[in-house]
Amino acid sequence: MTPEQYVQEKAAASGSSFYYAFLFLPKPRRAAITAFYAFCREVDDVVDEMVDHGVAATKLAWWAAEVAKAFGGNPSHPVMKALLPHCAIYGIEERHLQAVIDGCQMDLSQTRYLDYPNLQQYCHLVAGVVGEVAAKIFGQSDPKTTEYAHKLGQAFQLTNIIRDVGEDARRGRIYLPMSELQQFDVKAHELLKYTPATALPDFDARFQALMAFQAHRAHGLYDEAFTLLPKADRHTQKPGIMMASIYRTLLREIDLEKFAVLNQRISLTPLRKLWLAWKVQALGKV
Predict the structure, then answer these.
(1) CA 36 to CA 97: how far, in whole Å?
(2) Helices marked H in 72-200
(3) Percentage of residues of the chain with pLDDT beyond 90
């Protein structure tokens, strides 16, 4: 298997909404974003599949060293072999990849976030920097597009956090800021040990109010991002707009399901994701 085949399989197997936006890119840019996305999946999987904390830390340290070696001209992993040829072309720097690894390392050392500014730093590393790199690959021409990309990346990450509250809680993690749990009188143990049978009678109302607050913030970030996108880059940044259409539709679906995210994973079908991406590509509609 070639490095290019490896990253293609890694990206396709994830089933991510991002993959559907990549399909509409010209081949060179599609190859670059696929390789970059495969890198992000590799390091994120270290944390998501973690059984032993020490092993996960060792794997992330290996990835940090591999990135340094790759930018020194000596990649060994197929992902880095596939990604490295695109780095100079699209302005991808070692610091971008190391920032993503730093964000994943935060998952090993931190399972709670005191307040929203604290969470924002995590979102910056695992999503804002990813948005910055993606914008470069898509064809950024205006420096101001970087701010748009960071804002949109944070919107995506907050959407993921909302979708995955139950899944994360089962791993012992709570990304919702503790100060906001207190604001809506939701206890951490109610998330960590949630079952419909044992939840207090008023839990659903408190939890839904908390989640509606989170969704409102995420929608605000999408709106801010689109306001920040320079006119000169609106065409080249279509893949990001496709992803926004998919993610925002998911966010609306979660809202319609009354934020029933603690015991199920709400998702869109592959066909619906493809349809939403095509609408942006062909009709310019979000």
Answers:
(1) 9
(2) 78-90, 94-109, 116-123, 129-138, 145-163, 165-170, 178-183, 188-192
(3) 74
The Cα–Cα gap between 217 and 223 comes to: 10
**Looking at residue 199, what DSSP letter applies?**
S
- Output the six-digit token pair for 151: 């804002």
- Domain with residue 239: its CATH number is 1.10.600.10
**Is 0.70 surpassed by the pTM of this model?**
yes
- The number of domains in the chain is 2
Out of 47-61, 210-224, 227-241, least confident range: 47-61
Containing domain of residue 284, as a range?
111-286
Q: Are residues 158 and 286 in the same domain?
A: yes
Helix axes 27-48, 78-90, angle to 10 degrees: 130
Residue at a domain's end among 52, 84, 109: 109
Round to whole Å and give the CA distance between 110 and 241: 31
Residues 181 and 270 in one domain: yes
Quick one: pLDDT band at residue 282, thresholds 50, 70, 90? confident
Q: How far is CA 161 from CA 15, 39, 46, 168, 172, in A?
A: 17, 21, 18, 8, 14
Token pair listed for 236: 């080249």
| Domain-terminating residue out of 72, 91, 109 | 109
Cα-based torsion angle of the residue sequence 46, 176, 237, 14 in order, rounded to the nearest 10 degrees: 30
CA–CA separation, 223 and 52 (whole Å) = 40
List, for residues 232-242, the tens digit of each pLDDT value.
Answer: 999 999 999 99
- Per-residue pLDDT of 103-157, as tens digits, reads 999 988 889 999 999 999 999 999 999 999 999 999 999 999 999 999 999 999 9
